[in-house]
C-alpha cells in the first residue's frame, strides 16, 4: 500500500511539473525573481543549425518511472518512519523528498514552501526584511554573489565570492540555500552574525549586521565631469527600464547645451532580477536586432527578445562596467551591448549565471523553482558558467597619486627662444587631482576610456584660437563648412 501511495504521488507530481505554465523566471535566492514576459514564444535561433526536437519532450513526458528505484524510495520512507530517532510525519518526509529532488539538479532549482513562496512575492515587490545580499551555492558552499547597494551587507564590506561559513554560530556546511536565506531574513533592527572566508585572507572574517527593511532603488545617476554621465543599476526590477530612461533624460538636462559626450553604465555587483527589466534597459541603447534569446526542452521555454528602433542615446559613446558580482540579467545587458558593438565592456569577468528559473505554483501557498532554459547573447554565446569576458580587463584596485614637485621646462631656461606667435606669460598650474580614480579605480579608467574615444573621433587639425588671425580662421571655416570647398586627395 505504501509503495502504491508513494508511486502515485510521484506520478502526479511529475505530471504537474510538465503541465503547469511557468509564471516567472528567477535567479538565485535573495534577489528579485526574473519574470518570463507573457508574449507569444517565437521559433528560437538554433545554434547547431538544427530544428528543436519536440519528440524528445514528448518522450520525456510519457516515460515510465523505474520500478526498482520507486521500491527503494518506499523502503527508505518506511525505514525512516519506523527507525528514526524522532517521529516524522508523512507530509514533512514527502516535502523533504521534493526538496531533495530539486536541489540535486542544480544550485538554483528548489522547492518553495509557504515561507519561501511568500518571500518570493515580497522580493518581487522590492521590499523585504534582511541584510540585502544575493547568495548562491558553489560546490555545496554558501557563497556571496553580490551585496545590494546601500544595504547592511554592502555597508559591512561583504564582497562577491565571499564564502559564508557560519550564520549566528551555526555552520552552513550541508545547509540548504532555502534554510540559509531563511536564517538571514528577519525583522528590521535585529542583529545577525556572519563568519566569512575570503580569498587572500588567512583567518575567517566575523561581521555583525543589523537587519533592515530592504527597499531597493534600482537606478541612480550623476555627472562625473562636464559632459560625462554615470548610470548605476543595482538590480533589475519591473520599472527599471523606465527609471533608466528618466535618468538619461535628467543627465541630458544637467549636461545642458554641451550635451553628453559619454555615458558609463555600472553593472558591477548587480545580481540580476527581472528579465523584462534587463531587456527594456538594453533596448534603450540598441536600435535593432536581438537582445537575448532562451533555449530549453519545451517549446514555451524558447523565446527571442528584439530591440525597437527608438533609442535614448543613439550615438553617445558608452562603457559598461562589470565584475564577478554581475550576474544573470546584468550579464544579459552587458552581452547584448557587447555583441552589438554598442559599448566597450570594462572590468573583470562576470559571474556566469545564464540559466532561467521558472516558478511553478503547486497551490496557493507553495511551488517549485525549476531551471527550464539557458540564456544566449545575440551572437549565440551561452552565459552559463562562462560569464561575459570584458573587452578591457581592469582589476579592482586603488590609485596612489604622486605629489607634484617643481618641474623645469624650456620656458624656465635663461635665454630660451621665443615662440613664433609670441610668448605669453603663463603660471604653472598643478595637475588636476583624480578623485574618481582614487576612490574607484575601475570607474576612473572607464571615464578615461570615454575621453580617449572622444579625442580619437575628433577630426581635423587642432587650431589654437589665440594664434590664428581672423582672416585665416574665416578661410578655414569656409573650407570646413562651405559647400564649394575644393576637393583634396591624399597620396
Automatic annotation (TrEMBL):
The lineage of its organism: Bacteria, Pseudomonadati, Pseudomonadota, Gammaproteobacteria, Oceanospirillales. This is Carboxyl-terminal processing protease. It comes from the Bacteria. Residues 1-24 form the signal peptide. NCBIfam families: prc. One of its GO terms (biological process) is signal transduction. Residues 27-38, 46-61 have a biased composition (Low complexity). Residues 117-185 form the PDZ domain. The keyword Membrane does not apply. SUPFAM superfamilies: ClpP/crotonase (SSF52096), PDZ domain-like (SSF50156). GO terms for cellular component: outer membrane-bounded periplasmic space. SMART domains: PDZ, TSPc. Residues 27-62, 461-491 are annotated as: Disordered. GO terms for molecular function: endopeptidase activity; serine-type peptidase activity. Keywords: Hydrolase, Protease, Serine protease, Signal. Belongs to the peptidase S41A family. Pfam families: CtpB_N-like, PDZ_6, Peptidase_S41.
Amino acid at each position: 500500500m505504501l509503495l502504491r501511495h508513494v508511486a502515485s504521488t510521484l506520478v502526479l507530481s511529475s505530471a504537474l511539473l510538465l503541465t503547469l505554465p511557468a509564471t516567472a523566471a528567477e535567479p538565485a535566492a535573495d534577489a528579485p525573481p526574473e519574470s518570463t514576459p507573457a508574449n507569444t514564444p517565437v521559433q528560437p535561433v538554433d545554434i547547431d543549425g538544427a530544428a528543436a526536437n519536440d519528440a524528445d519532450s514528448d518522450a520525456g513526458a510519457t516515460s515510465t518511472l523505474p520500478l526498482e528505484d520507486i521500491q527503494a524510495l518506499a523502503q527508505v520512507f518506511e525505514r525512516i518512519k519506523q527507525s528514526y530517532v524522532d517521529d516524522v510525519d508523512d507530509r514533512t518526509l514527502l516535502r523533504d523528498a521534493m526538496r531533495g529532488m530539486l536541489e540535486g539538479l542544480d544550485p538554483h532549482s528548489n522547492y518553495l514552501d509557504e515561507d519561501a513562496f511568500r518571500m518570493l512575492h515580497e522580493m518581487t515587490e522590492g521590499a523585504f526584511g534582511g541584510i540585502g545580499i544575493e547568495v548562491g551555492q558553489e560546490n555545496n558552499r554558501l557563497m556571496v554573489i553580490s551585496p545590494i547597494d546601500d544595504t547592511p551587507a554592502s555597508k559591512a564590506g561583504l564582497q562577491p565570492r565571499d564564502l559564508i561559513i557560519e550564520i549566528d554560530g551555526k555552520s552552513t556546511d550541508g545547509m540548504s540555500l532555502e534554510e540559509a536565506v531563511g536564517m538571514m531574513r528577519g525583522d528590521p533592527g535585529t542583529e545577525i552574525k556572519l563568519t566569512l572566508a575570503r580569498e587572500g585572507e588567512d583567518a575567517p572574517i566575523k561581521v555583525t549586521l543589523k537587519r533592515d527593511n530592504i527597499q531597493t532603488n534600482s537606478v541612480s545617476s550623476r555627472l562625473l565631469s562636464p559632459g560625462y554621465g554615470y548610470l548605476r543599476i543595482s538590480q533589475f526590477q519591473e520599472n527599471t527600464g523606465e527609471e533608466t530612461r528618466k535618468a538619461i533624460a535628467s543627465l541630458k538636462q544637467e549636461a545642458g547645451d554641451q550635451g553628453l559626450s559619454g555615458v558609463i553604465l555600472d553593472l558591477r555587483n548587480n545580481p540580476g532580477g527581472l528579465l523584462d527589466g534587463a531587456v527594456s534597459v538594453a533596448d534603450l541603447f540598441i536600435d535593432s536586432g536581438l537582445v537575448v534569446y532562451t533555449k530549453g526542452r519545451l517549446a514555451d521555454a524558447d523565446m527571442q527578445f528584439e530591440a525597437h528602433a527608438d533609442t535614448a542615446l543613439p550615438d553617445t559613446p558608452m562603457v559598461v562596467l562589470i565584475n564577478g558580482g554581475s550576474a544573470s540579467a546584468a550579464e544579459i545587458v552587458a552581452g547584448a551591448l557587447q555583441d552589438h558593438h554598442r559599448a566597450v565592456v570594462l572590468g573583470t569577468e562576470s559571474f556566469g549565471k545564464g540559466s532561467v528559473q521558472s516558478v511553478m505554483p503547486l497551490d496557493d501557498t507553495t511551488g517549485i523553482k525549476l531551471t527550464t532554459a539557458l540564456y544566449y547573447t545575440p551572437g549565440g554565446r551561452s552565459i552559463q558558467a562562462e560569464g561575459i569576458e570584458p573587452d578591457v580587463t581592469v582589476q579592482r584596485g586603488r590609485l596612489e597619486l604622486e605629489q607634484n614637485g617643481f618641474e623645469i621646462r624650456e620656458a624656465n631656461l635663461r635665454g630660451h627662444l621665443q615662440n613664433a606667435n609670441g610668448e605669453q606669460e603663463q603660471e604653472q598650474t598643478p595637475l588636476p587631482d583624480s578623485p574618481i580614480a582614487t576612490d574607484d579605480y575601475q570607474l576612473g579608467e572607464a571615464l578615461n576610456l570615454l575621453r580617449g574615444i572622444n579625442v580619437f573621433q575628433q577630426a581635423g587639425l587642432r587650431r589654437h584660437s589665440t594664434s590664428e588671425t581672423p582672416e585665416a580662421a574665416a578661410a578655414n571655416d569656409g573650407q570646413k563648412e562651405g559647400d564649394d570647398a575644393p576637393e583634396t586627395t591624399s597620396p
